[in-house]
Amino acid sequence: MTPRAVVKGIGHYLPKRIVPNSEFEKTLDxxxxxxxxxxxxxxxxxxxxxETTSTMAIAAAKAALADAGMMADDLDAIIVATSTADLTFxxxxxxxxxGLGMTRGFAFDIQAVCAGFIFAxxxxxxxxxxxxxxxxxxxxxxxxxxxMDWSDRSTCVLFGxxxxxxxxxxxxxxxxxxxxxxxxxDLNSDGTHRDILYVDGGVxxxxxxxxxxxxxxxxxxxxxxxxxTAHTAMDKVGVTADDVDWIVPHQANIRIIMGTARKMxxxxxxxxxxxxxHGNTSAASIPLALSVAKANGQIxxxxxxxxxxxxxxxxxGAVVLRW
Length: 323
Ligand code: UT7
Prior knowledge:
The chain is α/β, with parallel strands linked by helices. The chain has ten helices and 13 strands. The protein is globular.
């Protein structure tokens, strides 16, 4: 038998404050028409003053535990993908662990920006198949509104805040594509492109900084690299486009999402999109999309899902899993 990390529960949290594109028309030289046609985004959620990455993540985590019928102490580990932890340290993950009342196991953060959830899934899968942990909660949570330069119309209209949480549990399969759980993955990064998407500040430069992006350049890399990493992961387990029930992509731009799906020969009806409602929530976008798609009945047990993401680094990757 082949050890597998199998999905047991999912949940999400979005801040109450919804900001439509029209809000930006008041302060910037932009239009709802430009934002919608260039990115697909219609609105995003922004955290209120009291909300942080960990408070949003705790709400998402509680929803995931309820969905799985588990208590916090049933978990062996919490892995959090974020670039916007509340504090420089401790990790958001340990703050979430305390917030959930979890008194055992271990918790830590992973930072791979918009691809963070893919890297966190890969790590959780490794913990489970190696026998280190039986139940792992994987969280993507971000407060990107705190990194925006509100005078830069080319970036501040694109991002949003939120959190999603997925619980994986050790299971067994036959070692082929009919198994439930994580079936294959592919991870990549190329630091020579670190200067096309970055924050111009950080602890060792004594500042917080703002997000900076050469959007066109990132776009150019995105479609090509996402299709390639998805194919690499699919080939590892013998999955073809016909097997794919859902692509659940990182939600940055509808044109990147649909361009990648076309390259993968998967029709638009089999692509989960939340970018119109959430904007780009970085590492939170995939668990948010999975949770919304599960809640609205799109994703069902045994569906074959390909999820892919790219972001700052550049870092990118894909995971093939059966729900
Ligand atoms: O999650 C991490 C990964 N991030 C991404 O995947 C984002 C990748 N990039 C993109 O999504 C797109 O490149 C953008 C949505 C950022 C931009 O779309 P684009 O089609 O690449 O537009 P552009 O950068 O070529 O800009 C076209 C024009 C420019 O004006 P000029 O130079 O042609 O006169 C911009 O100054 O649009 C202008 N522009 C805007 N106009 C109105 C840029 N931002 C805005 C705005 N409103 N908000």
